[in-house]
Amino acid sequence: MGDKKKVFVTRKIDPEAIELMKDSGFDVHVWEDEMPPSRDILLQQCKDASALLTLVTDKIDDELMSQSPQLKVVANMAVGYDNFDVPSATKRGIAMANTPGVLTKTTADLTWALLMAAGRLVVQGDRDVRAGKWKTWLPLGYLGQDIYDSTLGVLGLGQIGLEVAKRGLGFDMKILYFDTYRRQDMEEKYGFEYSSDVETVLKKADFISVHTPLTEETYHLIGEKEFAMMKPNAILVNAARGPIVDPKALYEALKSNVIAGAGLDVTEPEPILMDDPLLTLDNCVIAPHIGSASVATRNKMAMLSAQNIIAYFQNKPMPTCVNPEVLSS
After folding, report:
1. Exactly one of 187, 193, 252, 270 is catalytic; which is it?
2. Is 270 tagged catalytic?
3. Per-residue pLDDT tens for 120-149?
4. The whole model's pTM is what?
5. I need a surface site. Which of 32, 118, 177, 192 has the fewest CB within 10 A?
6. Strand, helix or coil at 2?
7. Catalytic entry in 167, 211, 289, 298
8. Is 289 a catalytic site residue?
9. Which domains are assigned to the chain?
10. H-helix or E-strand spanning residue 235
11. Exactly one of 167, 211, 241, 298 is catalytic; which is it?
C-alpha cells in the first residue's frame, strides 16, 4: 500500500478493529477521550487523514471534506448516517460506509426491552423499591398494559422493524405496519397487515414502535396531532432517531395521559438535557442510546467499519458502501 495512510478514529472502539487496521498497514490515530472531539479538533485531524472511522455524533459535512484533501473514505460505526453529507461526499469522490445488518437483532431486542419496561412500569417499580416506597402488594398499584393479544404498530419495516415485528408474534400480537415500500412477502410469511398511511397505525395500535430513518420528511413525524390519534393506553417506543418524535409534544401527551407511556433509546438532543421535563415523568423510560450495545455486536460494528476502510485501499469491494457510485468513477 506504500506509505502508511492515516486513519483517524473519533472514539475508543473494540481494540480488535484497531489492530486489524494497523496490521493492514495503516497509521491509526484514536481519540482517547470519552467525549467526542470538538469541531476544531476534528477539522485539524482530518487535514492529513486518508480515512475516518466515525460515530453518529461526528458531523461529516462539506466544510470538513473541503479541508481534508487526502480524505478518501469515511466509515460510520452505525446503521444511520444522518451525520453524513452524502451528496457532497459523492461529488468529491469520497466513499462513505455504515454498519447495517450486524446490529439488527440486538437493537430489536433493546426495543422490546423498552416496550416491556414502559408497558409494565418496570422502571417506575424499581425506583419505588429502591426509594422505600413499596409498602405492600397493591391490587390497584403499578397497573400496566397487557402485551399479549394486543396490536403492535411498526412504523418502518426495514431490517430492525422487521425483527421487532417478528418478536411480537411470540406474544400473539397482531402486527400492523406502515412503510413507504409494501412488504407483501412478509405479509404472506408472517401474517402482517399493511397500512398505506401512518394515521391508521397510530389509531389502531396499542404499542407503536418507530423505525424510520431520520429525513426532512420524518422530522417530528410524531407530534401533537399524531398523539391525539393514539389510544389512551398506547405505548410509544422510539429506538430510531430522537428528532422523529417531537419531545415537547411527547411530554404533553404523557403528562396529560393522552397516551399511557413511552420508551426511548434516542432523544432530541442527545444526550437529553438534565432540565428536560421528560425526565420528571414516571411513565417515560429513557435509555442512553444503547440499542446496539452488546459485547458481540459492538465488536462486529467496529470490525465492519475497519473492513470497509481496508477494502477501499486494497481496491476490493467495500462491504457496505452507501454511495457505491464513487467506486466505479
Report:
1. 270
2. yes
3. 999 999 999 999 999 999 999 999 999 999
4. 0.93
5. 32
6. coil
7. 289
8. yes
9. 6-101+295-327 (3.40.50.720), 104-286 (3.40.50.720)
10. strand 235-238
11. 241
